[in-house]
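ok, trying the design again with the full structure, not the truncated one.
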């Protein structure tokens, strides 16, 4: 199974990882999740609504500059419900355009401050990558897309994913933007010794989760 890249459409740390994963792990399979639903499933919350919000926003802004992505423009009211953009990602995937659409949407969100949880913004983003925006939006309401999103979320939970971004390699979960390099090294050594994974009570930097929880995700009985 190829490495799987689980990401959230309005997650800044997911954006950082998405901009680099094509070079670091070119065979990664992009798997968009409904982050709000994932957090509920595993009993977590996004740091965007915790007392750590300002600290983590500053961390994101620093990382964006370090990654050469420029200053972040935060959408008004961020974070909002991300179910619609998550469905749009899957609709784009059905058309073979997940990666260009996903990157365009996250850039619009964090470079331009556009609220991609709103239908008109998704339509506009689709147009920039040559997709039929109204058709894409229509597909987000189809039962097949809604069911497909549930499948991806269930798959992520079963694999032991508790936050985004996460890369799953041979059953090991690498959670956080700061672990993307480690995941890439693991991919290069898939036939060799398994890398040791560190644990910290401070939680992962570079992920959409409450920083008080363990950096090493709990392994699910259903994970591979």
């Amino acid at each position: 199974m190829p490495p799987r890249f689980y990401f959230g459409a309005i997650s800044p740390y997911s954006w950082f990882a998405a901009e680099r994963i094509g070079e670091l792990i070119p065979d990664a399979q992009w798997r968009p999740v409904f982050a709000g639903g994932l957090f509920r499933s595993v009993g977590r919350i996004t740091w965007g609504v915790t007392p750590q919000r300002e600290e983590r926003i500053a961390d994101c802004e620093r990382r964006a500059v370090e990654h050469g992505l420029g200053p972040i423009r935060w959408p008004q009211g961020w974070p909002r419900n991300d179910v619609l953009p998550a469905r749009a990602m899957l609709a784009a995937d059905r058309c073979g355009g997940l990666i260009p659409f996903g990157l365009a949407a996250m850039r619009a969100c964090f470079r331009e401050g556009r609220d991609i949880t709103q239908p008109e913004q998704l339509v506009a983003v689709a147009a920039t990558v040559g997709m039929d925006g109204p058709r894409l939006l229509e597909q987000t309401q189809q039962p097949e897309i809604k069911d497909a999103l549930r499948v991806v979320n269930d798959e992520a939970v079963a694999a032991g994913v508790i936050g985004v971004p996460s890369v799953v390699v041979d059953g090991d979960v690498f959670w956080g933007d700061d672990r993307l390099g480690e995941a890439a090294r693991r991919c290069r050594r898939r036939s060799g010794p398994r890398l040791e994974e560190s644990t910290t009570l401070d939680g992962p930097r570079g992920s959409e989760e409450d920083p008080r929880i363990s950096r090493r995700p709990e392994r699910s009985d259903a994970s591979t």
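Keeping the full-length input from now on. Residues 75 and 113 are 4 Å apart (CA to CA).
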